[in-house]
From TrEMBL:
Its EC number is 2.7.1.-. This is Diacylglycerol/lipid kinase family protein. Keywords: ATP-binding, Kinase, Lipid biosynthesis, Lipid metabolism, Magnesium, Metal-binding, Nucleotide-binding, Phospholipid biosynthesis, Phospholipid metabolism, Transferase. The lineage of its organism: Bacteria, Bacillati, Bacillota, Bacilli, Bacillales. It comes from the Bacteria. Belongs to the diacylglycerol/lipid kinase family.
């Protein structure tokens, strides 16, 4: 049995339209399914926890974006219930990283006829994430974007990714870098004027930015990208390189692979996981290898 969790507001309403098309295909193919609609933020986690508690022998399928996947993940971990995704958000970075088609019929075909694989996931303090946890500048961008009126307008005209670009520029004028101490697999690193730390299980965030292009979700390791020691203008130039995935060779960018890290900063820095706000530093982050079955 396939249990679909539909976030009608993902992609500013696109998810509901996609679900209507998916439902027609399921009926035509005589597929056994049930559907739950999320009614508020964090509801997806509760729905999944109830399904797991009822010992439903099902495959859970998200029709939504990265935020909905993040909430479902936080109800799913610990069970062996597999997850399918029909991408219907504005960013869809988890799907992009896994190579799931952004076309709904192909994504459904992958779930109905494909094989699941087991992937790593990450945990920040007590919250799981599956794509990237970002600390600092990108945490602020996520915070501002989640409250942005642009997001709704741009989603309506299918240019949702522009939300992140506009809010990136806005936060650029407000953000003050901090000094951090980060312990990665028991080794201590100190960085000054840190703009961001991206802890990546998969390459993309912010609607397709390849912040850690080589991150793989099956290698048991995070790719940790630390952007530090630069002026606003230099950071702006780096952002342009990030758009093309050409930032890796900059001397102000350090990429470290690791399994667990502890971050302390001179001022509290905002943290997001999969684009959803988790809290502020200090933070402990670790990888949980081979923890999620996904189609
Ligand atoms: N019924 C609801 N009303 C309002 N918000 C909801 C409802 N159900 C879920 N949500 C919230 O909607 C938010 C956005 O969902 P989601 O991330 O799937 O879409 P998106 O932001 O368009 O896509 P992406 O994260 O890929 O950019 C989530 O943070 C979730 O908590």
């Amino acid at each position: 049995m396939y249990c679909f969790i539909v976030n009608k507001v993902s992609g500013n309403g696109r998810a509901l339209k996609i679900w209507n098309k998916i439902e027609r295909i399921l009926i035509k193919k005589n597929v056994l399914y049930c559907v739950y609609y999320t009614e508020k933020p964090k509801h997806a986690t509760l729905i999944v926890q109830e399904l797991i508690n009822e010992k439903c022998n099902c495959i859970i399928v998200v029709v939504g974006g990265d935020g909905t996947i993040h909430e479902v993940l936080n109800g799913l971990i610990g069970s062996n219930t597999p997850l399918g995704i029909i991408p219907a958000g504005s960013g869809n970075d988890f799907s992009r990283g896994l190579g799931i088609s952004l076309e709904h019929d192909k994504a459904l075909d992958r779930i109905l006829n494909g094989e699941s694989k087991i992937i790593d996931i990450g945990i920040v303090n007590s919250t799981y994430f599956c794509t990237v946890a970002g600390i600092g500048f990108d945490g602020e961008v996520a915070y501002v974007s989640n409250q942005s009126i642009f997001k709704k307008i741009f989603n309506l005209i299918r240019i949702g990714h522009l939300t992140y670009i506009i809010n990136t520029i806005k936060v650029l004028f407000q953000f003050t870098p901090a000094d951090i101490t980060v312990v990665i697999d028991k080794k201590i690193y100190k960085f000054q004027k840190v703009w961001l730390v991206a802890v990546a299980n998969l390459p993309f965030y912010g609607g397709g930015l390849p912040i850690c292009p080589k991150a793989e979700c099956t290698d048991g390791l995070f790719d940790i990208c630390i952007v530090h020691g630069m002026t606003k203008f230099q950071f702006f130039r780096i952002l342009k390189l990030v758009l093309k995935g050409q930032h890796m060779s900059s001397p102000s960018i350090k990429i470290i692979k690791g399994t667990e890290l502890e971050i302390n900063s001179s001022t509290p820095l905002m943290i997001h996981g999969d684009g959803e706000i988790i809290g502020r530093t200090p933070a402990q982050i670790r990888i949980e290898p081979h923890s999620l079955y996904v189609f």
